[in-house]
Design goal:
It is a single chain. With 432 residues, the protein is α/β, with parallel strands linked by helices. It has a domain at 168-228. The chain is 27% helix and 28% strand. The protein has 12 helices and 24 strands. It has helices at residues 25-34, 68-75, 93-106, 118-122, 175-188, 192-199, 232-246, 271-283, 326-330, 340-349, 354-357, 406-415; strands spanning 5-15, 39-44, 47-48, 65-66, 81-83, 110-112, 114-115, 125-129, 132-140, 161-162, 167-173, 211-213, 216-220, 225-230, 251-257, 287-291, 299-302, 305-308, 313-316, 363-372, 375-385, 399-400, 421-424, 427-430. The strands form 5 sheets. Strands 1, 2, 5, 6, 19, 20, 21, 22, 23 and 24 form a 10-stranded mixed β-sheet that branches. A 6-stranded mixed β-sheet has the order 8-9-15-16-18-17. A 4-stranded mixed β-sheet has the order 12-13-11-14. A hairpin with a 2-residue loop joins strand 23 (421-424) and strand 24. Helix 7 (232-246) runs parallel beside helix 8. The protein is globular, with a radius of gyration of 22 Å.
Length: 432
């Protein structure tokens, strides 16, 4: 590793669906903060629309699509590194994935997390800077199983898709509750297909320690609990990519898209993210950037390396999409005569618009940090807000937040990780 100081800036989700209206003072201020860094990262949470791409049967919630010109507007902030492994990568099926890859390539942007097969989706991508070479590895824990990229064989091509972070969950119950669960299973016949198919040897039985209840696995323990672990196949592959990148670059960024909450608190990361992030750092990663829940979560400094457990949103315009497939309208009991405004109104009427009504969704930070010889030497946090009080069709652009409590709240969320944040002229500074 060279002895140069390398500077970084990062944002969370960029769900951009509108053209930039102009380069006003807010834009210029945000751009100047981002452009101070060598490495400038964001997560692209939309598909770059190609009219020939048909919608997938499933989506990441709604079907997100954006004009390729919106990508140009996003990149004008200064970003030179993009992850796009998330729950919207295949909203418009394989055609949308391929079109997005092509548009990103046309802009010459370094991007990672999806590709023509599993090898290309999981491989490190490299950014060349005057201060050093930086690798990006990106994965997502939220996806439909049909979106997983397939391995390429000598006798069969691979399948396009995302770099998956699959999860294995086991629930623990006390003995008395397990007996009740078994009675419920017998009563409602939820395991009938499992019993028949395993008896006929069409599928393997689960180990005796586990009791299946539909698709969920339970075991007996001293007290109730839930344990989620990253699938060993995915951990091995991602750690292998880190091992490759640390021999081919000065710094490694690992991007993780995950919606999952802690079992008790949505503002806290789940244990599997905490554990996996640290294993990535143990393997050689120099920053873990998480996003997905659309809110801020705490920051941890582990072995002089930052872990951002969620950076919330940078641009968030999910209610500005102009097209949606019939599947979206069907969710609200609407038909072909209805339009997107009708659908968003119906969503409000049904009170399933939590992303729109939660003020925390519209607040975030831009971290800017510097590293030398693989160690964090400085970390500042710039608070931003995205216009919560504006009309749904006009909010979603970032601006520096003045006299806000964003840094104070982030400081509280970070305390449990031993991270201390002081506030200087409205900007957060992590104490190292």
């Amino acid at each position: 590793m060279n002895s140069n100081i390398v500077s970084f800036s990062a944002t969370g989700d960029s769900l951009i669906t509108r053209r930039l209206p102009g380069k006003d003072e807010d834009y210029i201020e945000i751009q100047s903060i981002i452009n101070k860094s060598d490495v400038k990262f964001t997560n692209l949470e939309t598909t770059l629309y190609n009219p020939e791409s048909f919608p997938s049967a499933v989506s990441g919630g709604s079907w997100c699509s954006s004009s390729p010109k919106a990508l140009v507007d996003l990149l004008s902030y200064g970003f030179n590194m993009i992850s796009w492994a998330n729950n919207h990568t295949l909203d418009f099926s394989y055609g949308g994935l391929i079109a997005t890859a092509n548009f990103l390539d046309q802009q010459g942007i370094v991007h990672a997390g999806a590709g023509n097969n599993l090898a290309s989706a999981s491989e490190p991508k490299y950014l060349e800077t005057l201060s050093g070479r930086v690798a990006l590895i990106a994965a997502t824990a939220n996806f439909d199983r049909t979106w997983i990229a397939g391995d390429q064989r000598r006798d069969m091509v691979g399948r396009p898709g995302i770099n998956p972070l699959r999860l294995n969950t086991v629930y623990t119950l006390e003995y008395k509750y397990m007996e009740i669960l078994k009675e419920i299973a017998d009563s409602c016949k939820i395991n009938s297909a499992y019993k028949i198919l395993t008896e006929k040897k069409y599928m393997n039985k689960h180990p005796e320690i586990y009791f299946p209840f539909g698709e969920n696995l339970f075991k007996v323990g001293d007290k109730g609990a839930v344990n989620t672990q990253v699938d060993p196949r995915d951990e091995k592959r991602i750690i292998s990519s880190i091992n490759e990148a640390k021999r081919q670059s000065d710094y490694i960024i690992v991007s993780i898209h995950s919606h999952q909450p802690n079992e008790d608190n949505f503002e806290e990361p789940p244990d599997f993210i905490i554990d996996f992030s640290k294993r990535c750092i143990d393997a050689g990663a120099h920053a873990i950037i998480c996003h997905g829940p659309h809110i801020l979560r705490g920051i941890e400094i582990y072995k002089d390396v930052p872990i951002f457990y969620s950076l919330g949103n940078f641009i968030f315009q999910h209610e500005s999409t102009t097209i949606q497939p019939s599947d979206f309208y069907n969710k609200f009991g609407l038909g072909n005569e209805n339009n997107v405004a009708d659908a968003f109104d119906k969503e409000n009427d049904m009170e399933i618009n939590g992303l729109s009504t939660d003020p925390q969704v519209w607040k975030s930070v831009i971290p800017c940090w510097r590293m030398k010889k693989g160690k964090l030497i400085e970390l500042y946090l710039y608070p931003i807000e995205l216009g919560f009080s504006k009309e749904r069709y006009s909010r979603g652009w970032p601006r520096i937040a003045i006299n806000s409590n964003i840094i104070e709240n982030l400081s509280i969320l970070s305390e449990k990780f031993g991270t201390k944040i002081e506030i200087i002229d409205g900007i957060g500074k992590v104490t190292l």
